[in-house]
Amino acid sequence: MQKHWWKILGVALVFYAIIAGMLLKVPKLNILYESIRNLYYHVPMWFSMIILFTVSLIYSIKYLGSSKPKFDAIAKETASVGIFMGLLGLLTGMIWAKYTWGAYWVSDPKLNGALAAILIYAAYFLLRNSMEDDTKRARISSVYGIFAYALMIVFIIILPRLTDSLHPGSGGNPGFNVYDLDSNMRLIFYPAVIGWALFSFWLVNLRLRIENVKKELLYSHNL
């Protein structure tokens, strides 16, 4: 139980965010209205994606400095789950856009940048799968992972702040804290961020364990 407390906490916080996010009161803001509840899901998913890609960057650098396969494995799986969280963030964002902007997809630099970032990381796995030599694959993927992270920061953080954007906190628009992220919303939003992040790392942990089992089975089969 001591080893799994963070997994239990993550699941509990996600369920709390889902249930409380639907039931507790939210401020009545023009245009957003009840759709502001998506803040509890959409934004934490993006935060989780950025955190996972950051961890992937760190372990890519660590692999280049040590050539330890376990570092490459962590870089790979955090990038994989990062893409998954990014797709969830993109999906919830499209639903939110439909109810606030009138269409599932609009010409917005943050939306376009998010899609570009996900495609860049999808190319990371295409690159990995194109090489058979383990050492070469890990090294080249680590180098690509560093550049992918830099491009991700440019596409989803830097460019939207330099151009006009419909998103709060971008293109001169005020963030939610300026609108009215009241105390009730904070009681859900911050736990939601922690919960989705912990849940994401649980998925990473599961994928790493699955890969280890596959390697052990392959090794025993070759004996």
Descriptive report:
By secondary structure, the protein is mostly helical. It has seven helices and no strands. It has helices spanning 5-23, 39-66, 69-100, 109-129, 134-162, 176-179, 183-222. Helix 2 (39-66) runs antiparallel to helix 3 (69-100) and helix 2 (39-66) packs across helix 7 (183-222). The two termini are 35 Å apart.
Q: Would you tell me the overall average pLDDT?
A: 84
Distance between the termini: 35 Å
Low-pLDDT windows of residues: none
How much beta, percentage-wise?
A: under 5%
- By DSSP (H or I, 4+ residues per run), the number of helices equals 7
> Cα-atom Rg, whole angstroms?
19 Å
User: Which class best fits the helix and strand makeup?
Assistant: mainly alpha
- What summary fits the major beta sheet? none
- H-E order: HHHHHHH
- Give the number of DSSP strands: 0
Percentage of residues assigned to helices: over 70%
Shape category = globular
Per-chain topology:
Blueprint: H1 5-23, H2 39-66, H3 69-100, H4 109-129, H5 134-162, H6 176-179, H7 183-222
Helix pairs in contact: 1-7, 2-3, 2-5, 2-7, 3-4, 3-7, 4-5
Keywords:
223 residues; mainly alpha; 78% helix
Task: Write a brief caption for the model.
The chain has 223 residues and is mostly helical. Helices cover 78% and strands 0% of the residues. It contains seven helices and no strands.
